[in-house]
Amino acid sequence: MPALSVSPATVFIVASARFPQTGRLAGLMTFAELASAGIDGQSVVRLTERGLLVRARRGAYARADLTARIPERALAIAAAVAVAGPNAVASHEDAAFMHHLAVLDRPESISVTRTTGHDRLLGGPPPAQVLIASLPRGEVTTSHGVPVTSVARTVVDISRTTSFRAGVVVADSALYPGKTTKPELGRVVASCSHWPGNGRARRVVQFSSGKAESPFESIARVAFDEGGLPPPALQVWIGEDRPIARVDFLWPEFKTVAEADGRIKYADPDRARQQLHRDAELRDAGFEVVRSEERRG
Length: 297
Hints:
The protein is an alpha+beta fold. The protein has eleven helices and 13 strands. The strands form four sheets. Strands 4-5-7-6 form a four-stranded mixed β-sheet. It has a four-stranded mixed β-sheet with strand order 10-11-12-13, sandwiched between helices. The protein has a three-stranded antiparallel β-sheet with strand order 1-3-2. A hairpin with a 4-residue loop joins strand 11 and strand 12 (256-261). Helix 7 (164-175) crosses helix 10.
């Protein structure tokens, strides 16, 4: 069988300004956009086989030279948005991915929101759920060339549609680095006051904190609340004359400290010894020290 070839004219289209300039991540183009640029179906197949184009999902192709350093999930999200139709944006956990926010769980399917049409499922892989909802101008932005819901809208959407714990994880992770503020979150909650799950989102916003430094700390805060404990002070330095340590959680009225220990906190033996010495100093100062260890699974 003779080798497939692409004409010099077609290669020139791919390599030049005549190639569709979409402004999307990795130069993503829909099949219709390629056809409008004069690249027919047979040429798309040949360009893909030659490694000039990458099929990102059914009906969407990216320039191979722009995909090398792009995470697979990001390319899949961008492709789903491209084929979902006008005004589509990545939303929910996939907007969180593009904003580098922590989430408790990530569904296999991609979430896309647009303002017109009807809810539908785009075949995968991976599948993409297209949701219909209002998207006010201030609740839409772009991240790495992908249209997405704003950080505040993303937090509220996840808080409305998942558990309280999952909402707190994503809200804290957005507040801690200053990617949004409580007033911004409150405005979004107010803008969708009649939407399902809005009461839970309002509670998440009230409970969330910009001082929780990790998802595990956020989960611990929820556990304290569920256990009926009063809210602790977060990230507090202890020691009057000489600072002893900054602790994750402090109940000053009970002289009790709690620490949320991540999976790798004690991987370094020297660090483990430092932590033991630190705990001894805290106990000598009259504080009870309680440690909670992150578990797998």
